[in-house]
Write a structure and sequence with these properties.
heterodimer, A: 220 residues, alpha/beta, 5-stranded parallel beta sheet, 5 strands, B: 355 residues, Arc Repressor Mutant, subunit A, 3 domains, 3-stranded antiparallel beta sheet, 61% helix, globular
Chain lengths: 220, 355
């Protein structure tokens, strides 16, 4: 089988002893790879993963601002515009953790150790498990991406376009050589999304006559 | 009949007006009642004679200062304050020479004495700014030319001159000052409670000389320094870049390759740190210097600050990118995480299935 990996698979795999079902399933899925091929798109490797890592660093700087400067208004720094709501939940949790440290230098050391280890694990994952890198970022079909975004954005106008670009890469690659998508996101990564986005345009229907199968890691 | 001024007179007038601080060609034309083109020509001649310097060129705005203008970055400074600074610095030099049998004090010692006087006598209302080597007055004076500067800038004795001279003598004799610049700096950093970041910078500098123990000595100080970078918007760039610097530093010192070429890596790390430091302390300077009341002067100052910042970030970005590029070449050792680190990782990876 040729698997197209969504970013959540990599992030799920590199975690540390999390016992949640999705993580366990993700680790088990990767470890059972055997003769299967794992495919990753350049958009995830060169843009989305670095962007995710960047958000984690912003989270940490925000924790520093909030914990050492009582006059600082939380999230008022411009770079916080890049944070998602769930990132802010992480800030809250990490601040509670930071409060238990008497030596603030130790928080920085711990955070940097974690960050460096996450980077190392991602790099190791790609080196060891990824067999093919596909669809350079500048080859992502904008018409397809926009169509996917239109569908994804219904009822959610501020959504970022990263899912749409990853989905485009998967559909494009599938039409070159068959693949199956593996993800944990049941909400957006659906057959309906793909069908709607492609069938809406005659041009897209012609270009992409076949749509990839989607499997959810929770169900594997 | 119109009595036209000759070239010498116009140039004298220009130099005289420039004693008050930076001026645009437009302003100098108004002051001297000459055309823009005339002033432009005379400024070009004065530039060739090394009597003036162009400090800013933006569209039609060209700003000049005298080459001997004593305020840092050629910034405009209220005449009364500037003259009081010049007077104080000059008299510190004179008094030092008198007390220490003609010995000429170095510029750092003179500045540190001045800062102590400014701190102990707030009524003097002297401007004090933080800069690369600690707190100073924003005015520079060469110890050899001090008296001449007072004449050139028409600095008269202030009303309380006797009182000031007394304070200078007291500070020189009782302030534990020496004519050794690094000792003076260190003394100030220790004495002023708001200068922890300067002490940490010294610590990093010291650790870099001790290259054999660089890793062990430096890591904590590098992190402590991070905690001292202010949180305000002005310093956002530095917080971000220093954070990147920490990441690169950690990567390098924890790599398998570090021990083999320790000296080169330490040198590169310190070079990047120093670039950040120079620029960060320039921001301290501009923050402490404050803003201008006059609109044109405000525009001049804002542009000087902007140009300085842009030149700095160009350099810093370039150096940090180079340092971070080691990620592609160095082998990072696997890290066993402690319990807190596992918790942090767990939190950071929460919701990863929605990414």
């Amino acid at each position: 089988m040729r698997w197209f990996l969504d970013m959540c698979i990599i992030l799920g795999y590199i975690g540390e002893g999390d016992s949640s079902k999705i993580i366990t399933k993700t680790i088990s899925f990767v470890n059972q790879k055997k003769d299967d091929k794992f495919v990753l798109c350049y958009y995830i490797k060169d843009y989305n993963l670095p962007k995710w890592l960047g958000r984690k660093r912003i989270i940490f700087r925000e924790i520093l601002r909030q914990t050492r400067d009582s006059s600082y208004k939380p999230y008022s720094n411009e770079e916080c515009n890049q944070l998602w709501e769930k990132d802010k939940n992480q800030v809250l949790k990490l601040i509670s953790l930071a409060d238990t440290f008497s030596d603030k230098t130790e928080i920085i050391r711990n955070f940097e150790n974690v960050y460096q280890e996450i980077e190392r694990r991602i790099r190791e994952f790609i080196e060891k498990n990824i067999d093919e890198l596909v669809i350079p970022i500048n080859e992502i079909d904008l018409e397809l991406k926009n169509s996917l975004m239109t569908y994804l954005n219904i009822g959610n106008p501020i959504r970022n376009e990263s899912d749409a670009k990853t989905m485009s890469s998967a559909i494009q690659e599938h039409n070159k050589k068959e693949l199956c998508i593996i993800t944990a996101d049941k909400k957006d990564w659906t057959k309906e999304t793909f069908e709607w986005a492609v069938s809406i345009s005659l041009n897209l229907s012609k270009k992409y006559p076949s749509l990839p199968e989607i499997k959810y890691v929770q169900n594997t | 009949m119109v009595n036209r001024k000759n070239a010498e007179q116009i140039q004298e007038e220009i130099l005289s007006h420039l004693k008050e601080g930076p001026k645009s060609i437009k302003k100098l034309s108004e002051f001297t009642d000459s055309t823009w083109a005339t002033i432009n020509t005379h400024l070009d001649n004065l530039k060739k004679e090394n009597k003036v310097r162009e400090i800013l060129t933006i569209n039609n705005l060209r700003v000049f200062i005298r080459t001997d203008y004593p305020v840092f970055y050629g910034l405009p400074l209220d005449k009364e304050k500037r003259n009081l600074c010049l007077y104080l610095l000059s008299k510190i030099i004179d008094s030092w020479k008198e007390i220490y049998s003609g010995e000429i004090p170095n510029k750092t010692t003179v500045q540190k004495i001045a800062v102590e006087i400014a701190k102990n006598e707030p009524s003097l209302n002297l401007p004090v700014v933080r800069f690369h080597y600690g707190k100073v007055l924003p005015v520079s004076i060469e110890p050899q030319n001090a008296s001449q500067m007072l004449i050139d800038y028409n600095v008269s004795e202030p009303k309380n001159s006797k009182d000031i001279l007394k304070k200078i003598n007291h500070e020189i004799k009782n302030g534990n000052h020496t004519n050794i610049a690094w000792k003076e700096k260190k003394q100030q950093y220790k004495k002023h409670k708001d200068m922890k970041i300067y002490l940490l910078k010294d610590g990093i500098e010291y650790a870099s000389c001790n290259k054999d123990n660089f890793k062990a000595d430096t890591e904590k100080i590098i992190y402590d320094f991070f905690l001292e970078i202010p949180s305000t918007e002005r310093y956002s760039y530095y917080l971000r870049k220093y954070h990147d610097f920490i990441s690169a530093f950690k990567l390098i010192i924890n790599s398998n390759e570090f021990e083999k070429e320790r000296k080169q890596y330490v040198q590169e790390i310190i070079e990047v740190f120093n670039s950040i430091w120079q620029s960060l302390t320039t921001q301290f300077f501009f923050e402490d210097f404050g803003s201008q009341a006059d609109k044109e002067l405000e525009e001049i100052q804002e542009n000087i600050e902007k140009n300085t910042f842009e030149m700095d970030i160009f350099q810093i970005d370039d150096k940090i990118t180079n340092l971070l590029s080691y990620k592609n070449y160095l082998t990072i050792k696997k890290k066993e995480l402690n319990e807190n680190e596992k918790k942090i990782m767990g939190i950071l990876l929460e919701g990863a299935n929605e990414e």
